[in-house]
Amino acid sequence: MSDFGLLGSSGAFKANLLELRKRRQDIIAANIANADTPGYKARRLSFEEELSKTLPRGDELPMRRSMAGHMPTPFELEDGEIQEVETAIPKGDMNSVDLEQEMSRQTANQLLYNYAVQSLSGQIKKLKMVIDGQ
């Protein structure tokens, strides 16, 4: 993860969220690409619950990691949990990809990714305005 020193912990949180959303998008795209592959098991990436556990409580001081070998700082969740969908769609080929559900998940994930990009972009713009003295 990049160092977001000027953007603070919220910038680090948003950057981590973007990486996880991109990873989820890649998994959904793989599911869609394999919709007709016999025996393929659709996969899901879940991370929201674990990511929410990394949020600091109001009484905690922020931590900073100066070396990659140190314990991760809050907001760093490098992996989510990948699960396979075992329930096969009744097509007779043991494939568990439901194309309509995958397309719906892809759209929802893309919207949330775009929202996170706009939020991080707005934060960077505000910081630039402060630096420029506007």
Automatic annotation (TrEMBL):
First and last residue of the signal peptide: none
Pfam families: Flg_bb_rod
Flagellar basal body rod protein N-terminal domain: residues covered: 21-41
GO CC field: bacterial-type flagellum basal body, rod
Physiological role: Structural component of flagellum, the bacterial motility apparatus. Part of the rod structure of flagellar basal body.
InterPro entries: Flag_bb_rod_N (IPR001444), FlgB (IPR006300)
Record keywords: Bacterial flagellum, Cell projection, Cilium, Flagellum
Lineage: Bacteria, Pseudomonadati, Pseudomonadota, Magnetococcia, Magnetococcales
Subcellular location: Bacterial flagellum basal body
Protein name from the UniProt record: Flagellar basal body rod protein FlgB
Subunit composition and interactions: The basal body constitutes a major portion of the flagellar organelle and consists of a number of rings mounted on a central rod.
Organism, scientific name: Magnetofaba australis IT-1
Listed GO biological process terms: bacterial-type flagellum-dependent swarming motility
Family: Belongs to the flagella basal body rod proteins family.
